[in-house]
Every structure is written in C-alpha cells, then in structure tokens.
Amino acid sequence: MAAPAQQESREVKGDKQAKVDRLKEISNIAEKRGIFFPTAEIYGGKAGFYTYGHLGKLMKNRFENLWKGYFLEENFWEIEGNSILPSQVFEASGHLKNFNDPLTECKSCHFRFRADQFVEDSLKIKAEGLSIEDLDKLIRENKLKCPRCGGQLAKAEWFNMMFPITIGAAGSKDISYLSPETAQNPFLSFKREFEALRKKLPFGLAMIGKAFRNEISPRQLFFRLREFTQAEVQVFFDPEEIDSCPGWKKISSYKLLLQSAKDRKGDKVQEITCEDANKKLKLPKMYLYYMQKMQRFYLEELRVPKKDFRLYELSEEERAFYNKYHWDIYLNLEALGGFKEVAGLHYRGGHDLGAHEKQSQKELAVFLEEKKKKVLPHVLELSFGVDRNIFALLDIFFRSEKERNLFAFPPSIAPIEVGVFPLVSKDGLAEKAQTVNDELRKAGIRSFYDEDGSIGRRYRRVDEIGTPFAVTIDYDTMKDNTVTVRERDSMKQRRVKIAELAKSLK
Ligand code: GAP
Known about the structure:
With 506 residues, the chain is an alpha+beta fold.
C-alpha cells in the first residue's frame, strides 16, 4: 500500500508556485506532443483516467520491455491473467474487508471526498491511517466545513476502493471485481506453474497488466489514477532459503541508499553495503539481493541520478500486517514536491498462498523432491506502477532552459531515438534524408523524418520529446555523403559518414 501522504509530501525544493508551474509545463508538453492526456476529454473527462498518446505509448512499451529484460532472470516467467476476478479471490486476499479509504460527504452540496486527505490539508497534520472515530473527532473539534460550499459534513465512513461488476445474465447474483493489483493472478496460477516448471523452487511469475482502484479523490494528474498499469514479479521460494543468495559474494559490497523508518526525522539517507545491511539491519540476503537489483534498475538502466533515489522503509504500523519487510522505492519528483513512492519490495511471507488455500479448500503446499519435504512457499513481491514510473521519468529528466524545454531521457527509454531532417526540402535533400531515415530504421534505430519548419524549430521539437540525436542532411551531404549529428543535451554537432551513421549512433 502507498505510504502516508504526509511522508510523501516532504518538500525538498522551493516554493509551491514553482512546483505548480513545473507540473503544468510537463502536462502541457505531454498533452501537446501526444505523451498523455485526459481520457474522453471531449466529454469533460473523468478524474483518474488518462490515455497514452503515440509517444507515451512508445515510451511505455520501452519501459516495459526494459523491465522484462532486466527482471525476468533465470527461471522467471511472464504470465497473463485477468483483470476481472471472482469475489472469492478478494475475500481471501483481504481486499473486500480491508481495501478501504475514509470517505466523508457534505450534507448540503453532497460533495464526497477523502476524509484523511481533507484533514491533512486543512490541519497540516498526519492523518492517513487514523480511525474513522479519530477523523470525525478532528473534523468536529476543529469545526471543519465542506471545502466547496462551507456546509456541515456527515460522519466519515469506510469506502471500498474496488470496482464491482456483474457477470453475464446472472447479473447482480454474480459479482466479480476489477482487480486492484496484478499480484493475485500469479498466486492463483502458482500450483499449475509449479507443476509445469518441473516442481522446483525458487521461481518467479511476473505479470504486466491493468489494476483498478476507485480512488475517492484522485490527485496529482497522472500519478494517482483509477485505472493504471502494474508490473509485478512474485518470487516463490522455500522459506528456509530467505537468508541465502547464490551470487552473494558479487553483491555483498554493493552500497544501498537507505532511509530506514527511524532515519526519517532528519531526512537522513545512509549508504550501506549489502553485507552491513545483512549484519546490522538484519535484512535477509535474498531480500537484499532484490533491493540491490531494484536500485540498480533505477541508477544504471534508467539513469536516475543517485541524489534523486532512495529505498524507504515502511514502519511496522504503516506496512500490511503480513509484510515482514517492506521498503519502497522513492524518487525525488520536483513537480510533486519531493520524494514519492514509485515501486515496492514486499516480503509477503506465506500470507497469500495460505489465504487462498483456506478459501478455496485446495492444497497449495507443494512437495520438494530434492529436499524430501512439503512446503507452503513464501513470496517476495517486486511491485512497480508503470504509469507512475513514466511520470517520474518525465519529471526527473525535464529541463526548462532559456531557449528550449527538453526531456534529457537516456536512449533506453526515449520514445524516439533520432530525428532525421533535410536542411531544406528541395534539390534532392528531402529524398536523401528519407533514404537515411529508412536505413536507420532498417538498422533497428527508432528514427523519424521531419521537414516542417525551420531547422531550429525542428531541433526544439525533438528536444521537447526527449529525442537524443538529430541528423541533418545538407548540401555537403550531397557532395561527400556525410551528415551532421546533433546531440540533444550539449547541442554539440559533429560530422559523420552516412556509411558509419547507424554504428556511430548505436
Ligand atoms: N501488489 C502490491 C501492490 O499493489 P501497492 O503499493 O498498492 O502494492 C504498487 O502498489 C505500486 O502500484 C505503487 O508503488 C505505485 O507505483 C502503483 N500504484 C498504486 N496505486 C496507484 C494509483 N492509484 N495510480 C497509479 N499508480 C498506483
């Protein structure tokens, strides 16, 4: 679950206005250039629903492919389950009982909103996680009124965040739910996959799919949505193996960037080796293996600057009761005012398989031939919100310079890698540029051709969509078969032979 909003909103940089402007600037570019925009805009849209435009979809594909290539290690597999699952699944998982947010309603104008967020915003105190009684007391004692019309507020009540739907002709007699996480599918598929995968542990089941949460007050644009994509891996293993890790020697001296629950006060982040985290913080080796793996994904694959990254521990009160260890990935998002959660590493123990075993009355413990014993596997979950990560990358790599706006994306996630431009579209330059573009695409480089407007405007356009390189075909090209390659961040230019262009760009 998400960490309390109060912790999420520690401001690291300057004034509120700058934050609002940055958010506005990013969303203006996103909407104008086809990265993301509100769904059903022509009908006024609905909060919490966004569409990926052509560039956003390219970027999302790239993120998901990078994620799969990186996390699907030996004996890790991808599955595709369903978004609609029967109610028994969520009775077992606890979502029907516990997946609730506190709701309050204005008695006059009937505006409904999240009681805890309202109390936090009004009183500037931490309110997430408070009981309904405590929230009501705070509202009464502080005489808080409807933020829309100033009317009296009704007593707060729990609101379940799942979307119920009816199936087939049975209608309301057969209620199912849109799944609020992809995680349930791997749990439901565990036994079959165990058999198919030669009855061995550990193994990982990953799923990238839609999740649905009926957020009462979706906020922060593209960051908190009602329909979003998750990329999750469930690692099933023998609980006795939690403190073992085959490649331990290779990772033991790797330094993690940690903010433990008790380090929050001074906003301290400690750099600590996996070895020390194992000995001093008592984090098991398998858990540490995935912590360093997740950290490296951000620092090395996505090239997030070290200063903008931290692994953030949830305290005992904040994490779900079954999560023995729970650290989230927090990234520093200037547009949202500080460090925010984008992913999590949850040690869910035997909770999920145990609960489904009980609910379904089907045995999910398995016999391990090699060890001659029966176990109910434990689960380590690596959970990422894809859309949140896309938004985070937009924010982290956004630069607003005097002459231009740009996204300084690394090529691995840039929606388009190269823009190919003829200096002018006459004298055979356009045809030559089209040939260069075709050749780059054949070489597996995602390039696109553009001849509209001045060359300066075309450079600004590709900067604004985070394209790392621009290739210009000019009159010299027609004489010596060389082109100009302009690098987005430094704006430096160099001459390259067409015959060497694809290799040089790669
Ligand atoms: N299976 C575990 C799970 O779902 P979670 O912390 O509730 O855990 C995991 O969600 C990730 O999903 C979060 O770190 C975040 O990136 C993303 N996420 C959660 N709620 C979201 C929302 N309303 N909109 C967008 N992303 C969300």
